[in-house]
Amino acid sequence: MLPAQIGDTIALLRLERTTTAKHPDPDQPQPATADPRSQVGDARSLAATAGLVAVGWPLGGVLGTQLTLSGAAALGGHLPWLPSLLAAVAFAVRPIVRWWVAKRTAGDDLAVLHGAEHQAINCVRQGLALTDDNIAASPVESPNCDSALKVTEQIIFVPIAAVLEVWLPGWLLGRQLLAGLGLYLLARPLAFELNARQAAGRLSGRRHGLLGLLGRPGLRRQTKTTTRPGGPEHREVAARALAPLLPPEQQALVDTFPSPVEVITVPATTKETIS
After folding, report:
1. Cα-to-chain-centroid distance, residue 166
2. What is the per-residue pLDDT across 126-168, written as a single tens digit (0 to 9) for each?
3. Under 8 Å CB-to-CB from 30, ≥6 apart: which residues?
4. Residues of 261-273 as b/e, b for ≥16 C-beta within 10 angstroms?
5. pTM (2 d.p.)
6. Please, are residues 73 and 42 in contact by the beta-carbon 8 Å criterion?
7. Which residues, in sequence order, are CB contacts of 206 under 8 Å at separation 6+?
8. DSSP character for 263?
9. Where are the alpha helices (DSSP H) in the chain?
10. Shortest CA distance to 91 belongs to which of 168, 161, 172?
């Protein structure tokens, strides 16, 4: 699901830029009619972007794994255990660099929106109404968020990769590539399954044991880098975004928020519009 989510996010960002570029100022005169074919083209372009990212993300993960393992085997093959150390350092540092870059480029506003999103979801999980006070009192961390699960994945993946590097330098290149592909196809799903189990256990209140320990570093990293508590306006955005996904009886419990957030409804393109 992660590649599809990333592809959808990129597509939405492109849609936002396109909409802003087409309508820079509501006070300026706009053309009387718009070309409906451009709307169809935009939709196809956005769908193609999301699809390419969804397909390219796992392929990029396989390629990165192959290059890291083969590079470590080539650089450290003359010393015992040096390839393992190189591979472990490379796999451990790579997500840290990505998190640092994301933190530098996203800014504080995205972090507080992310935190408000988690607070609203946790509020619903506790069976509470989506009010400003309830959301503010809910925890910012979420065990199901990818920013936390990625840490668990690395804790599982890195030692397996380091152990594999003990044998790789003495193998032929073709066998090394097959081993790297097998590592990615086996270790990643294993990490994903353990992630799901530890997240489900934490949500049900079972926070102890090995899976509970695996989840703690990710939650700590999440609250330190990608999420922070927001203000009333961020909590309102999170509540209004989540409310349409709730059952009708829970939608009725959504409170009226005091912050000045303007809701803009964009009409959907109909067949009559493009025909």
Report:
1. 32
2. 888 888 899 999 989 887 787 777 787 788 888 988 998 888 8
3. 23
4. eeeeeeeeeeeee
5. 0.61
6. no
7. 212
8. P
9. 2-22, 36-76, 82-125, 132-137, 146-164, 173-203, 209-225, 232-242, 248-251, 271-274
10. 161
